[in-house]
C-alpha cells in the first residue's frame, strides 16, 4: 500500500480525470519502492528526519519495534517520488526522463543513510 495518495500525485501532475488511475497507482508503488532503495531505508522518511536513521542493525531493530507515529512523509521526499513518477508518466524523450530522475535524486539525496566512507 502506498504512502503517497493518488490524489496528491494527480494534483501535482495536473491530471483531472480518472482514466489513468490504475497506471498512476502502479507508478506510485514503483517510485516509492525505488526511493526507499535509493535512500537505504525501510520506509520513506518523515517530516524533520534527515540522516537520523542509524546504520547499526541492532539499534535500527530497536527503533522499528516501537509503535510511535512519526508523522507525515516529508514534503521534499514526496516531491522527489512524484518526480520519479513524472519521469515515467510524462517524459517523451530519454533526456527528459533523465532530467526528471536527476531532479528526484537531488530532492531525495539529503535523506540517504548508510552511505559509507
Q: Give me the secondary-structure category.
A: mainly alpha
* SSE arrangement, N to C: HHHHH
Q: How big is the Rg?
A: 15 Å
Largest sheet: none
Which stretches are poorly predicted, pLDDT < 50 over at least 5 residues?
Answer: 59-68
Overall mean pLDDT stands at 87
DSSP summary: helix tally: 5
**Count of individual beta strands:** 0
- The helix fraction, in percent, is 55-70%
Could you explain the architecture of this structure?
With 117 residues, the chain is an all-alpha fold. 56% of the residues lie in helices and 0% in strands. The chain contains five helices and no strands. The longest helix is centred in the N-terminal third of the chain and has 19 residues, at 21-39. The model is unreliable at 59-68 (pLDDT under 50).
Write the layout of secondary structure elements.
Layout: H1 6-13, H2 21-39, H3 57-65, H4 75-89, H5 94-108
Search tags:
117 residues, mainly alpha, 5 helices, globular
Short description:
This protein is an all-alpha fold.
